Amino acid sequence: MINVMLPTYNEAENIVPLLNMLQQTLESINKGYYIIVIDDNSPDGTAEIVKGLDIPNVFVLERSGKKGLGSAYMDGLSHCKYPYTVILDSDLQHDPSTIPLMLDIATTKRCDIVTGTRYAKGGMVCGWPFRRKLVSSIANNLAKYTIGLQATDLTGSFRLFKTEVLKRLIPLMNCKGFGFQMEIIARAECLGFKIEETPVVFYDRNAGDSKLGVSEILLYLKSLCVLYFSVN
Q1: Which of 17, 56, 129, 180 has its CA 20 to 30 A from that of 135?
Q2: Whose CA is closest to 188, among 206, 204, 170?
Q3: pTM of the entire structure?
Q4: Closest Cα partner for 119 from 75, 151, 78, 86?
């Protein structure tokens, strides 16, 4: 019933515990699931580690290089086979135990997207330095007030989609990097898809390095400008 897409780049230290957590959570739902690991030729051997686990319902999609987050979702989508698709980071910053709640919200409220939010009551960020919190807050508020969006967490990447809705949105996307998360929610709101939010706790990574750099921030600002003129 649920696909899970996991883009990875140098997540050798995180991927095994994350897959263990995902399996325990998804098996508790007692429905079919399929985990798609989309690896961008990680030098640390992330893909080889996952393949070595030999788990039947985990598929590794290996790509030739670092092509970006949005591009990873685009490629991974062709391997999705269940009606709901979850996207989350592969660095243990998202707690997979929230997935059953997301699925319950999607089915009971008949919505198209359930997005985790750090910025509504009950949500929070743990372990981030002030600079990272400031960057996230500015990025969210810039998009929210520039484009006039309702969602409270536009840069978050822990979401559940109806797979058919994700397939409609993906071809519309222009941003391949950090701004992908903001753009997909903006386009979903513009098209009138029903979006619900649920509070999530976001944890700072314990292993590996953040993929967010100056170039990603500049691309985000560029994407925001393009999106302003295309959805307004």
Answers
A1: 17
A2: 170
A3: 0.89
A4: 151
State how far Cα 216 lies from the chain centre.
16
DSSP code, position 210: -
**Residue ranges of domains in the chain:** 2-231
CB 59 within 8 A of CB 79: yes
Cα–Cα distance list, 9 to 44, 55, 203 (Å): 8, 20, 18
Q: In angstroms, what CA-CA distances link 169 with 125, 163, 193, 219, 220?
A: 28, 10, 10, 20, 18
Tokens standing for residue 118: 């750090």
Burial (CB count within 10 angstroms: exposed 0-12, middle 13-18, buried 19+), residue 223:
buried
How confident is the model at residue 212, as a pLDDT? 53
- Digit-coded pLDDT (tens) for 29-41: 988 999 999 999 9
CA angle 84, 18, 106 (to 5 degrees): 20
pLDDT in tens, 125-154: 887 777 777 877 887 887 787 888 889 998
CATH superfamily placement of domain 2-231: Spore Coat Polysaccharide Biosynthesis Protein SpsA; Chain A (3.90.550.10)
